[in-house]
Amino acid sequence: MERGQGVDAVNRFLAHARQFVGGPLDAHTVVHVVMGNEASDLDSMVSSTMHAYHRSVSPLAGAITAGKTHSYVPVINIPRQDFALRTESVWLFESVGVDTRSWVFIDEIDLDALHERGQLRLVLIDHNKLASHQKHLADAVEEIVDHHNNEHLYASSVVRRVVEPVGSAATLVALELLEAHSDDASAVVLDAGLARLLMGPILLDTVNFAADSARFNEKDTRAYEALKQIIAAAGEGEGQSPQALFDKLQAEKFNVASLSSRDLLRKDYKEFHLHISGGKRSVKLGISSVGQSIEAWAANESDIPAALAKWFAEQGLDLLLANTAFFDQQKDQFVNDVKQFIATSNKSSDVPDDGLSFCRQLVAFVEAAEGDANAQLFAELVGFLEKNQELKLHRTASEVTQGRRVVFYDQGNAKVSRKVLEPILAQQFFASL
Predict the structure, then answer these.
(1) First and final C-alpha spacing in the chain
(2) Contact at 8 Å (CB) between 391 and 354?
(3) Contact 169/126 with Cβ under 8 angstroms?
(4) Cα–Cα distances in Å, from 55 out to 99, 192, 211, 422?
(5) What residue stretches are annotated with the DHHA2 domain (predicted)?
(6) Predicted confidence (pLDDT) per residue in 112-142, tens digit
(7) 8 A C-beta contact, residue 163 and residue 128
(8) Rounded Cα distance, 32 and 295, in Å
(9) Whole-angstrom Cα distance, residue 140 to residue 156?
(10) What is the average pLDDT across 200-225?
């Protein structure tokens, strides 16, 4: 598709924003870093880029200090080398013509130095709680736009907080941009390319508005319809339809055949520091979202437990989970296994007779000597997971070798993603220990 005026405006903004990174700054300059979460999925990247663009022409009231130069810089919260792992993001930004070479990645900006000089302001997008290694920047948080559970943090510094249970953070960003775009006095330009850019994460996060996904509401629908009108008004053909966009993004998202096990585990990875009840200890839990089945992974990796052990050690974890997500048209055995498990467990089945088109599996891992606190914690975690009625897990394999403990599951409820799993663990498992 041809690049439009809106995409050109964003590219000019990105090139301008990059000049505030790496070199000396005037003492009167304030840098407003607009940053997505540390997983940096498509939603975080699109939303932080577009919200920063919006703020560059419409600064947040109450966040501007007289006599200061204020600059908005979108920062992608992963090292630049990791961007190639976000295959669907690489494709979408390239397809609409946004120049990601001008992006600033987290390893290219010294947030600590800006913070120490009092020149840093933070806008959190697609999360409302700083990662543990960034929590010392808490007093710089001035704005939050998110769709996850509201942690109600940073009350003393936040000027504006928008946390709503929509399907995608891009929905909230898009609605603000659409409102600005409709104002003749606004400098915001929203063309078909930017509309497609915003529509991408909305389609992915709502599973293309699948009725049984339970992942969208009226605001998601309203944003989607408005963006679709902009695309249609530009005369986009069938090849650029929302359905075609969703299908292509799904294909690119799960296009991980060439990735090593380490890249699979770090492609979409988050860490959580969860406290055992009573504050007895903090547990460092890593959860990787892996975009292929265990079987497909095993076809390219001869020793999955060894690969898990390497990542576990590299990240210094106490527990590691890998939550696979994949489309599989030939999975009658999977469906039958889940039904058999449910039948023998006297539980009701959510598996339709015609099978599922979307599947999840779960892998639990720890490396700890017999009698170690983490070995005991792992045993309790496995017991909790297997009894949890929301997950509907079916153990398919397990292994204990030289301190490595790994359990593989088919997951009967494919709706339980990492976003859903983490609060289940925090509120139902760790809080009960």
Answers:
(1) 55
(2) no
(3) yes
(4) 19, 20, 34, 32
(5) 246-429
(6) 999 999 999 999 999 999 999 999 999 999 9
(7) yes
(8) 45
(9) 10
(10) 91
Non-local (6+) Cβ contacts of 208 within 8 A are: 242, 243, 246
Query: CA–CA separation, 156 vs 163, rounded Å?
Result: 17
Q: Which two tokens stand for residue 203?
A: 């389609």
Q: What is the pTM of this model?
A: 0.68
Identify the CA nearest to 57 among candidates 180, 142, 204.
Answer: 180
Q: Give whole-number Cα distances, 311 to 33, 70, 226, 287, in Å.
A: 30, 40, 43, 11
Angle at 410 (CA atoms; ends 267, 373), nearest 5 degrees? 75
- Alpha carbons 342 and 413: distance in angstroms, whole number: 11
Contacts of 329 (CB under 8 A, 6+ apart): 357
Reading across the β-sheet that carries 104-105, which strands appear in turn?
A: 104-105, 69-76, 29-35, 120-125, 141-146, 160-163
- Are 44 and 169 a contacting pair, CB within 8 Å? yes
Mean of pLDDT over the chain = 89
Instruction: Name, in order, each residue with C-beta under 8 angstroms of 226's C-beta and a sequence gap of 6 or more.
Output: 174, 178
Residues 6+ apart with CB under 8 A from 26: 69
Number of residues assigned to the chain: 433
**Domains detected in the chain:** 6-250 (3.90.1640.10), 258-432 (3.10.310.20)
pLDDT in tens, 227-271: 999 999 887 655 578 999 999 998 888 788 878 999 999 888 999
Question: Which string of b and e fits 262-276 if b means at least 16 CB within 10 Å?
Answer: eebbbbbbbbbebee
For 170-197, how does the pLDDT look when each residue is reduced to its tens digit (9 = 90+)?
999 999 999 998 887 777 889 999 999 9
Taking a C-beta distance cutoff of 8 angstroms, is the pair 120, 259 a contact?
Answer: no
Which of 330, 270, 331, 257 is CA-nearest to residue 297?
257
Report residue 181 as tokens: 């775009």
Owner of token pair 């001008």: 102
E-only strand ranges, 222-299: 269-275, 282-290
